[in-house]
Amino acid sequence: MTVRVRVGTAYDVLIGHDLLDSVGDLVPPAATRALVVHTGRLPAVVSVVRESLQAKGVRVVDGLVPDAEAAKTIEVAAGLWGLLGSESFTRTDVVVGVGGGTVTDLAGWVAAAWLRGVGFINVPTTVLAMVDAAVGGKTGINTAEGKNLVGAFHEPLGVICDLDVLAGLPGADFAAGMAEVIKAGFIDDPRILEILETDPAAARQVGPHTLELIERAVAMKGRVVSADLREAGLREILNYGHTLGHAIEQHSAYTMRHGEAVAIGMVFAAELAHRSGLIDAALLQRHRDILTAAGLPTRYADAPLDDLLVAMGRDKKTRGSTLRFVVLEGLAAPTRLVGPSEDLLRAAYAALA
Ligand SMILES: NC(=O)c1ccc[n+]([C@@H]2O[C@H](COP(=O)([O-])OP(=O)(O)OC[C@H]3O[C@@H](n4cnc5c(N)ncnc54)[C@H](O)[C@@H]3O)[C@@H](O)[C@H]2O)c1
Ligand SMILES: O=C(O)C(=O)C[C@@H](O)[C@H](O)[C@H](O)COP(=O)(O)O
Ligand SMILES: [Zn+2]
């Protein structure tokens, strides 16, 4: 069964099996070249994508990039722009990102900036990229000062989520992707939480609930970004857990997975909300229970809060020197906590130790 989630009126996210050879169908008829951005770690996947593009008469250029967060740098992006230049890519040509969220973020940004914007297609190969990174049009890279500080909103032409590729995904990466699915559960779709509470193994490996969990998370993200692509307001809810999460990722020099850092960040946000009288102890504990059952971290004490506050000062939700957190005022009821006191921040952080 293939599920199709329409995002806005612009594009579809396809979720199912045996979908890789349909990537070529997303290429606009005028395209003659495609840059396939990938890490070299999934040769069988890239080979099917390449053949699918070639079958449409498109010449494929290989854009090999480093694995994981090392791909999201200006140097790597510049290398790909060099390739696009030497291969004379025009505005009708396309970029295809095949990989995890780091690859789709990079590929999207390279496409967003090339000739001020060419088309790109995402072929996410991790749970995280399928449910979140490849969908919604946030593209970008990191700088030395922080996470995703340079980028653009640039929507893909389409997204192909072939669940077959998840068979070889390490358990820790599977669970890290589920952190974003759990995020979707807390901010919008409690059915996700019920599924994971009934079947905790679903957060760690492919199983009978994988399709439904991915579909629910994509549908939620699709609804939100369709209403607020450029994050004027509503879209901020997708940042639940990310204010502290991004700071922790950066502090770990990106040795901690994005989803793991977001898991800790969600517990921090829940602590802030509980200590502000917005949520009860049971909802706070539900965060810890579901994330722990998924094999995700909920404790953290590896950095002085003062260091993390510097990074949080560069969070995109910050206004001037005022930190703004997405918090819950109930299950599936996100709101904002604006300018929490230093005492509150320190107490919530201490509770993570
Ligand atoms: N743009 C957005 O809206 C958005 C949303 C969420 C996260 N992100 C970004 O996504 C990134 C994290 O993505 P990620 O968790 O996919 O990390 P990742 O891209 O680093 O992939 C994780 C690991 O899985 C490996 N891998 C990928 N597919 C595989 C497969 N099918 N089988 C075996 N191994 C495979 C990769 O080689 C890598 O080592 C972060 O940079 C984060 O900021 C962006
Ligand atoms: O799509 C969004 O909007 C999100 O916030 C989704 C997040 O899961 C994702 O990690 C995103 O890249 C964070 O964006 P940023 O604007 O905080 O860099
Ligand atoms: Zn995220």
UniProtKB/TrEMBL annotation:
<feature type="binding site">
    <location>
        <position position="180"/>
    </location>
    <ligand>
        <name>Zn(2+)</name>
    </ligand>
</feature>
<feature type="domain" description="3-dehydroquinate synthase C-terminal">
    <location>
        <begin position="177"/>
        <end position="318"/>
    </location>
</feature>
<keyword id="KW-0963">Cytoplasm</keyword>
<keyword id="KW-0479">Metal-binding</keyword>
<dbReference type="InterPro" id="IPR030963">
    <property type="entry name" value="DHQ_synth_fam"/>
</dbReference>
<feature type="binding site">
    <location>
        <begin position="67"/>
        <end position="72"/>
    </location>
    <ligand>
        <name>NAD(+)</name>
    </ligand>
</feature>
<dbReference type="Pfam" id="PF01761">
    <property type="entry name" value="DHQ_synthase"/>
</dbReference>
<keyword id="KW-0057">Aromatic amino acid biosynthesis</keyword>
<protein>
    <recommendedName>
        <fullName>3-dehydroquinate synthase</fullName>
        <ecNumber>4.2.3.4</ecNumber>
    </recommendedName>
</protein>
<comment type="similarity">
    <text>Belongs to the sugar phosphate cyclases superfamily. Dehydroquinate synthase family.</text>
</comment>
<keyword id="KW-0862">Zinc</keyword>
<dbReference type="Pfam" id="PF24621">
    <property type="entry name" value="DHQS_C"/>
</dbReference>
<comment type="function">
    <text>Catalyzes the conversion of 3-deoxy-D-arabino-heptulosonate 7-phosphate (DAHP) to dehydroquinate (DHQ).</text>
</comment>
<feature type="domain" description="3-dehydroquinate synthase N-terminal">
    <location>
        <begin position="65"/>
        <end position="174"/>
    </location>
</feature>
<feature type="binding site">
    <location>
        <position position="147"/>
    </location>
    <ligand>
        <name>NAD(+)</name>
    </ligand>
</feature>
<comment type="pathway">
    <text>Metabolic intermediate biosynthesis; chorismate biosynthesis; chorismate from D-erythrose 4-phosphate and phosphoenolpyruvate: step 2/7.</text>
</comment>
<feature type="binding site">
    <location>
        <position position="258"/>
    </location>
    <ligand>
        <name>Zn(2+)</name>
    </ligand>
</feature>
<keyword id="KW-0170">Cobalt</keyword>
<keyword id="KW-0028">Amino-acid biosynthesis</keyword>
<keyword id="KW-0520">NAD</keyword>
<feature type="binding site">
    <location>
        <position position="242"/>
    </location>
    <ligand>
        <name>Zn(2+)</name>
    </ligand>
</feature>
<dbReference type="InterPro" id="IPR056179">
    <property type="entry name" value="DHQS_C"/>
</dbReference>
<feature type="binding site">
    <location>
        <begin position="125"/>
        <end position="126"/>
    </location>
    <ligand>
        <name>NAD(+)</name>
    </ligand>
</feature>
<dbReference type="InterPro" id="IPR050071">
    <property type="entry name" value="Dehydroquinate_synthase"/>
</dbReference>
<dbReference type="InterPro" id="IPR030960">
    <property type="entry name" value="DHQS/DOIS_N"/>
</dbReference>
<keyword id="KW-0547">Nucleotide-binding</keyword>
<feature type="binding site">
    <location>
        <position position="138"/>
    </location>
    <ligand>
        <name>NAD(+)</name>
    </ligand>
</feature>
<dbReference type="InterPro" id="IPR016037">
    <property type="entry name" value="DHQ_synth_AroB"/>
</dbReference>
<keyword id="KW-0456">Lyase</keyword>
